[in-house]
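Before the break, one more example. Copy the sequence into your notebook; we will annotate it together after we see the structure.
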Amino acid sequence: MDRFNDVQLKDKNLQQNPIGVGLYEYAEFVRCDFSGVDLRGFSFTECDFIGCDLSNANVHGVSFREVNFRECKLLGLDFEQCDAFGLGFRFDNCQLNYSNFSNTKLKKMHFKDCKLIQVDFTGTDLTEARFESCDLLDAIFEQTTLEGADLSSAFHYSFDPSRNKVRKMKVAEAGLYGLVAGFGIVVGR
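Here is what the structure looks like once it is written out:
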């Protein structure tokens, strides 16, 4: 596998100008368009993606280790198909709508100011994950481990706590409605 260290790419359209398949370490991608690109065979370690569009990219078997996404569009990505070994990201002000994190281990994952509309977290381990000011409208939580997770500033979530592991999960009083609505309970004063 080819190895690329300390690479910096700016304003590049990867469909029109592909880059070499291989291991990218300590790379920075700024305003690059990866949308619809087949990334099979790529590995990213300690890389930063800033203002990039990876919507509908094929991430089957791709390694993401200690990768930071900031102000990126990642619509419709199937993270369940990524290489599970060492999987680790941080998302800051990203759009992850319609993405799939099913059956992944995302312990202590940090989502900040993200849109996670209709994201699938079925069977995901989100132990001690933080959803800081995140929109979770129609996100799917089924058999999800949310023990110690912090949803205290997240909003628009609605799921059945009895179908998930929620011990010591943190929520704000305003978020209680999304946890009891399915039981016909009315929250009010």
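The chain has one helix and 13 strands. The longest helix spans residues 177-180. Try to locate both features in your own notes.
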